[in-house]
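Q: I have 496 residues here and want to know how they pack in 3D. Can you give me a structure?
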Amino acid sequence: MNIRLTLRILGGLLIFLGVMLLLPIPFSLTAPRPNSWHDGALFAFVISSVVTLVAGGGLAGLIKARGELTHREGFCIVTFGWLGFALFGSLPLLFANVTGVDNLADALFEAMSGFTTTGSTTIVGLDSQPPSVLFWRAMTQWLGGMGIIVLSLAILPFLRVGGMQLFEAEVPGPTKDRLSPRIQDTARVLWGVYILLTAAQTLLLRMGGMTWFEALCHAFTTMSTGGFSTEDASLAAFGPAAQWIVVVFMFLAGVNASLYYYALRGDLRPFRRSDEFRFYLAITVAASLLVALLVFCRSPGPASLGTTLRDATFQCVSLLTTTGYVTADYERWPAMAQYVLVALMFIGGCAGSTAGGIKVVRLSLLIKHAFIQLRVLIHPREVRTLRLDHKPVSREVIQSVLGFFALFMMVLLIGSLILAGLLPAHPDGSIDMVTAGTAVLSALGNVGPGLGTVGPTDTYTDIPAAGKLVLALCMLVGRLEVFTVLVLFHPSCWRK
């Protein structure tokens, strides 16, 4: 393990974060509070930026190191880089005395939720928070969406050696396809598509009734499938036009980004050929229609079919893409509809997208593999090949998918048990397993809202500090696709 080179690169990433911490300052100056020339959070960002730049400069400037990056250094840089971003990115929330952020655990939870695009929050009264804080929350998700490391590969020259190790550790999904021969060009292509879609959504949301500030913040948190909003009521605070625009872009954000690269070159055939995209589209349509039907038929009073369909579609797309926006309190919906939503949280979006969850392609491969095993029991001598996009899938990919699913379920079970032990018991002595289970699933899938006391209209304020740290770790494990973090706990990772 080349520790010196790892620390030097982590220092460079912190320098980048220190510069990013200066970007909310214009929003602080343009929205002053009464009897003040800023919004109350100006010095929080200045101090945080200085602290981060000093820390990053110390690591990058004082440590002299050279060498090639191996997979082990790649895993360490990505994991500890994410931890460092969450730790230093939490400083302005702590220094600004944000309502609901009472200690370092709250601030770290909020920042980790931002950078991992989870969307869980402890902040109360978003409507009254300083604009610079709201912009920083949105920006953390936008940076974390496509991946800080992928961004670094695109713009930071000292990461050009061994960049593929970082790319493989960061990009979500069972396969990582280069769109161009050089890894830096691939990163630039991905971020170019990301920025283009963000700009398009910002313009459409402005035309849909939002202010420029609201449109920018929601475009940041939609394309990153993060779900942080500027309003306590989330997207329920805006009209139907804005909600439908967000539905479309949430769906687009859940699609494999490489398909857009080919589409921009005029080739739409990859969309038709992609088994994953067709399955993703089928899940979205089927779940939305089923939930709308359940809600409409079980509504206690007269219900508008159009409103029901919009709310059902919005919530299904929001949770399937792990964005986590809310337009309705789905805990009031029929139990079957809630089960469908929990299943969508578990599935997630497509590989190569900013969405979390186990990914549609993995679910597709698991289902195909299961049916092949059933057929083998009936016809033991028959040889069948698992295919994806009409191409055979290697045994290594199948083993990786099975391993990922096993580890995902293991972390989900262990995390739920630990959180259940940390939650306060009800007056009758019972433990809220619904809250514990869905909170961990939401964190591991980078979704945001769950059920119980962390439902769509609640925050994570009542979760104990130790429970928030457990959830923050689950967010990191889920965002980095389980393997990247857990591999660091294997003894062989640290041996020479």
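Q: Anything worth noting?
A: The radius of gyration is 22 Å. The first helix runs from residue 3 to 20.
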